[in-house]
Amino acid sequence: MIRMIMGIGLHIIACRRQRSKSTLNKKVLFSSDKKNWETPQKFFDALNEEFHFTLDAAASHENHKCENYYTEEQDGLVQDWGGI
User: Fold this and answer.
1) Are the C-beta atoms of 57 and 81 separated by less than 8 Å?
2) Closest by Cα among 53, 56, 55, 51 to 36
3) CA angle, corner 22, sides to 17 and 24, nearest 5?
4) By CB neighbour count within 10 A (0-12 exposed, 13-18 middle, 19+ buried), where does 70 fall?
5) Model pTM?
6) pLDDT (tens digit, 9 = 90+) per residue, 14-57?
7) Which sign does the torsion angle of CA 3, 9, 13, 18 carry?
8) Closest Cα to residue 58, out of 82, 34, 77, 45?
């Protein structure tokens, strides 16, 4: 019984620590007022070598990574991506 209580106590402490980390991560993730994040070029290039992207579904005229792209105004989530 003591082991069970200690186990429950350790589980509660671990959950509290995890919750603190989650809260911290959310603070970091939402720490900017900027809405238009751009994929770093080196990261895109490395992935593009393998996947050969043909569409940037969330881009702007200034930061698109592919010849075919949708801007925020065009709302890439509601567009037909077939054949691109």
Assistant:
1) yes
2) 56
3) 95
4) buried
5) 0.58
6) 555 555 555 556 666 666 677 778 899 999 999 999 999 999 99
7) positive
8) 77
The single-letter code of the amino acid at 34 is: K
C-alpha 45/C-alpha 51 separation (Å) is 10
φ, ψ for residue 79, nearest 5 deg = -85, 160
The amino acid that residue 33 corresponds to is D
| 31-48 b/e (C-beta count within 10 Å ≥ 16 → b) | eeeeeeeeeeeeeeeeee
| Side chain identity, residue 62 | E
Residues 75, 36: Cα–Cα separation, whole Å: 13
pLDDT at 84: 75
